[in-house]
Amino acid sequence: MVTVADIRAVALTLPRTTEHLIRDRVKFRVGQIVYAALSRDETVLGFGYPREEREALVASDPVKFAFPSQSDMRFQWVHASMAELDVEEMTELVIGAWVMCVPKKVIRARLGEDYI
C-alpha cells in the first residue's frame, strides 16, 4: 500500500513541483497545473493520464483504477486506489503525470534523453 509520504517523496524530487493543501486535499502541481492529488481521506490518488489511453488503463484493472467523476471526464485524469498500488507503480504514474505538464528540456534534464 502506498502512503502520502511515499507520493510526497517522489513528487517533491521532480523539478518545478510544489505541494499545496487546497480544500483539505494535498495536491502536487507545476505552476497552476495539478498533476497529482489525494482524496480528503487519502485513499485515492488522482493523477494526470492521457485521455485517449485511460479507458484501457481502467479496463486493465478496474479494482485499482477508476474514471474520475463525470464532471472531471473533460480533464486528462484517472483515479487509483492507494491500497492497490505499490511504490514502483505509483512512482511510474506520478512521473508520467508530471511529464505531461513540464517542458521537454526539463524532462531531459531530470530523466535523460531516452525518456522522451
From TrEMBL:
Write down the InterPro entries for this protein, in alphabetical order.
YjbR/MT2646/Rv2570-like
Question: What Pfam families does the record tag this protein with?
Answer: YjbR (PF04237)
**Keywords for this entry?**
DNA-binding
Give this protein's Gene Ontology molecular function annotations: DNA binding
Its name, as the record gives it, is MmcQ/YjbR family DNA-binding protein
Native organism: Lentzea miocenica
